[in-house]
Each structure stands twice: as C-alpha cells, then as structure tokens.
Amino acid sequence: MQAINSPSEIIVALEKHQYVADEEFATALFLLLKLQKPLLLEGPPGVGKTEIALALSQLLETKLIRLQCYEGLDINAAVYEWNYQKQLLGIKLQEGTNLSVEEKEHHIFSNEYLLKRPLLQSIMEEEQSPVLLIDELDRSDEEFEAFLLELLSVFQISIPELGTIKAKYKPFVILTSNRTRELSDALKRRCLYHWIDYPDLEKEMAIVKKRLPGIEQHLLEQVVAHVQAFRQRKLAKTPGVSETIDWAESLLALGYREVNAKAFEQTLGSVLKSVEDINQAKAEFIDTL
Amino acid sequence: MKQQAFQTRSIAESVVGFVQFARSHGLNVGIQETQDALRCAKEGLISNRDSFKYALKAIFCNSPEERKVYEKLFLLYWDTNPTDLQEIKNKTLVKGSFKKKNSASLVMLGRGKTEASEEEGKNVSGATETERLKRTDFSKLNETDSALLEDIARKMFKQMAIRLRRRMRESRSKGQINLRRTIRRSVGYGGEPIELFRRAQRPKKQRLIVLLDVSGSMDRYSYFLLRFICALRENFRQMEAFVFSTSLIRISKALQQNRVDFVLTAISEQADNWSSGTRIGECLHEFNDKYGKLLLNGSPVILILSDGLDTSDPELLSQEMIKLQRRAKRIIWLNPLKGMKGYAPEARGMKAALPSIDDFRFAHNLESLLELENILANA
C-alpha cells in the first residue's frame, strides 16, 4: 500500500475498489487516517455506510473486523469471554500432574483459553492497524455505548486475569448509525462525523456502472432515473443504492435490455419491499413505459 | 463581538478564531476540536478551500442540522468583507428582537398568574387536603390549589418513577440457569457446580412515545401533563416526546434536562401556535411521515394525551391511527374530558380515533395519571 497524502488520492484509490466517494466524504476518510479519530457515519439505510469499511480495508490491505450491534449486546459478546468448557477439561487433564495451584491457574487463564470477540481482536493486531466497523450502533444499549466511549479514547482493555492490553496499532474505527435513537453527545464528540445522503442521478449511475460494468447505458439510465423518482414519492420504505444495484442486476439476469412494462412488473420486488409501495409504483409508472 | 477572518493576523489565529466563532454560534466545539483543526491545516488541507471546509465540517458537526449551520458559519467567517459588516450587524439585531417576541408570546398553560394567597394555601395542607386535591379536576383548580397540587404532583411522580424502576430490578431473580457462569464458578470447587447462577432476565426496556396536545382546548391540562411526561422520562430512558396543536414539535431533547421550566421555554421558542386550534390528523400524519420510520421500530408503546377535539378531516385521523396501531405495541389515549360526568366520545375526531385505541382512559386529575403506572409497568 502506498502512503495517502490527500483526499483526492483516496477518491482514486477507492474507485479501484469499486466505491464511488465524493470529495467531502473522502476528506472525512482522510482525516480518519491522519488524525486516527473514529468516524461516525449516519444516513438512510442502503447508501453504503457499511460498504465503505470493506472498501477501506481493501484499500489499506488490512483486516476488517466487524461488530454488529443489537439490543442487549454485552461485553461477553463484544469484547472477550473465557472458554469455560475448555478450562474445565484443562483442569481435569492437569489432575495427575505435579503442578502447583498457581501454575494450574496461570495455565487455564492463558491466551489459549481466551475467546476473543471483535473489540479485543481489533486492539490485539500485531502487524498493522485493522479497520474496525461497529455497525448500527444506535441499536445497542446506552451501557454499551458508555463502555465504547472508554475504549475509543484509550484503545485498551482490562482483563482481570490477564492484565491490561493496549493496542500496538490503533484500529481505524468506523461507526454507523441509522438514527433510530440519538447517540450520546459524549460519544459524538470523540468522533468525526459525516452524513451520507442518497446520491444524485449522476453519482448513482457511476456507482451502478462500477458494480455492473456490463450494463448498457440505456438500461442504466432508465433504472437509476426510476429509483430517483421513487425516492421523491412517499413510500413505506425508500429504496437505497443497494436496491438500485439489485434491481439492475435482476434485470440483467433476466436478459432485459430496457425497462418495459413486463420487466417492470416482474422485477419491482427487488427494489420496493412492501405491497403498498409496489402497487403505488405500478399505478404511477407503468403507463409511462 | 467575535472577530472574523479578516481581523486576524496569522493562519493559526484565524483557525482558532473560527473555532470560537463556531462555538459562539452554538456548535459544540472545544479545545480538542481546535487542535484537530490546526492539525488539518498542518496536513496541508488548508491549501484547498473545499478540502479545508469539508475537513472542519467532519470535525465540528454532529448531526445533519449542525452541518447546515456550519455551511453558513463558514461563509460568514471566511468570506466576510469589512465593508459588508454593517449589514450583518443589522441582521443579527433583527433576529434578536424576533426571538424576544417569541418567548413573550408563551402562554402559561393554566398556571396561576399571581401567587397572592400562597401563604394561606400552605396552612390548610393535610392528608385529607391532599386526597381532595388528587381528585380535583385540573381545570377547576384555583391558583392556590394549583401551586399546592404541583408540589404534591412532583413528589408523587418521583415516587412513581422509583417504583417502576425497582419493580424491574427485583424480577431478575428468576430465569434459566446460566451454564457458563455456573461452570466458571465451579472451577474453584474442582469442577463441582455448587453455586447455581441464573440468566438474569434483562429488564426489557420498553420504548415509549408520548404525543401531547397543547392546543387551546387543552390549555388547562397541558402544564400538568407536561410535568407528568417529565416524570415518565426518568423511568423510560428510551422515550420520545412530541407536542402538537396545528403542527408537530419534537421535545425529546429539551426533556433531557428534566426541568419543566426549561422545557416550556424551549418549546415556546419553537412554537408559534401554542394554545391554538388542533389538527390531530395532520399532526399524526406528519409524525408517521417524518419520524415513523425512525421511531416506530420494535413496537413501542404510544401514549397520546389529547381531548380529541379535532378541526381536521376525521377520515385522515382514522387512517393515521390505523397506521400507528399497526406498528405500535399498544396505543393508550388519555382524555381529560373523559373525567366529566356524562362524557361520551362524541367529538368527530375522538370517534374516528377510537377503533384503533387499545386503552382509552381519563386524565383529568392527579389520581388518574398515577393509575397509569400499573399499565406502563406491565406494558
């Protein structure tokens, strides 16, 4: 990996990994790399918040470690846990040996019996900084958010039996949120912030083209223009960029070269995900085809 | 008055100046942010105007709203010419005077204007007096009683919040055996599981959304109901609150400070239609439209406090109520008028909403509000 010295280099490099970023976003990513501060991404679903972590890890040629948040996520699932069954076996195996109690204890609380969960993994990397993706943080509880606050400021974790583990290489942290609840101000202040919105027509076409290089210009224009029109309507679920790609992909798979009435009806399910939306779109758009 | 870019002498000074400028205009930026901004300048980002703007945007802003403010501040700070300054001064002046007018228009929701006979009120307070006040309709309170009842209400709401929390804590002792912890502890006994640990039932955090009607007809009740909402917030940390009359305003942020007076000022700053007519249907529509996708996930409990005197189309109201019901765990509607003798839900709006309501209750006095505790605890 060559060193990155400006936001525009990030744009070029990301493009190689099939991710289209504008200058504003690239600047935020550049700061993430330079200042080593976590980056909080917010925006509607399906605009590539999660995708960027993958692209960034490919660009940096480093590991991507992902933590998916959910309600009730606790330390055991996020940081570490002892492998108790294995420890029990370990004790039984040691029964015949002459080891002292301290030695036995030392043995069963060693690395071998430690189950590393994503957060611990991310600070134990030996070679280079990994990319740590903490996905949909708004779904986790406040307690977990508070714990994260501590981790994000010092990048160290204390395990009572082992001692404190400090990151040799600080991970590049990307947090995403769908804004189902407001994150705490304290957490937000520790992060850089970027809001990803739905792309405009031109950018969305570029994105789809990147993903599906074989697509014909006419079909591409039709698909993207339709999705952009859908977004203007009041729908139960507004389609994101990933839905646009899905739709284009299904049209290609079925061998269509343009969006006609039949194609529209057959494939609408890959872009709109509720009956009301589909009926509304059919009523409104099918005559124009 | 904060200075602007043209008044500074070095780059570092102007960057620091910008941080102060942003702070004075409400962005939450501190020393850490200043340092980061200077580091950006050092990294060479300052050579390109857009890069520099975007970089500081990522550092300074925390929400889409702040990002909009930032755009203006950036222009104002870096692009102001000394010659234009006179004009800007005038603008801020106009803005300031406008604000004053806004807060002056705050109507005090049936709260007493004078507290002349307060002394008298204190003398008569006793157990029976408390009981009487608890049953008094909010709309029939005189000013002395009103102050007194406020005291009682504050105490009782506080107790209620504590009770609700305690109930959740005690119910943890049941549950499945937690194998991992049991084995973990048995290591000390040579592998014999002597102490049993149970998987604690995590108190399920029920999400609550409150919609309070602050229109003219509710004027006499809104103040107490707002206080009630503040008390609920202590228990339901994941609570969202809105007030509505002709339009909808989100007050969740203001409630976090937990002071009714703050909330009132915060609301009055935003609301120009406080204590005016009601358009419940349209407000619910706005709620579904703007916040539905964000807040109605995971079946929250929805609490609506309104008298149902609606001036908009009842058809719309009934439609929106159905939409709400589909995504909510249950809808509780508190109607202060229901406490009146001989009340029947005859108002057009109330009639339209009724089929979608799971629990229709009254809320005209303190006692009826406190009864809600049981419902919410089991919700």
From TrEMBL, chain A:
SUPFAM superfamilies: P-loop containing nucleoside triphosphate hydrolases. This is MoxR family ATPase. InterPro entries: AAA+_ATPase, ATPase_dyneun-rel_AAA, CbbQ/NirQ/NorQ/GpvN, P-loop_NTPase. Transmembrane segments: none annotated. It holds the Pfam family AAA_5. Residues 35-197 form the AAA+ ATPase domain. One of its GO terms (molecular function) is ATP hydrolysis activity.
UniProtKB/TrEMBL annotation, chain B:
Residues 112-122 have a biased composition (Basic and acidic residues). SUPFAM superfamilies: vWA-like. InterPro entries: UCP010256, Uncharacterised_CoxE, vWFA_dom_sf. Residues 110-129 are annotated as: Disordered. Pfam families: VWA_CoxE. This is VWA domain-containing protein. The lineage of its organism: Bacteria, Pseudomonadati, Bacteroidota, Chitinophagia, Chitinophagales.
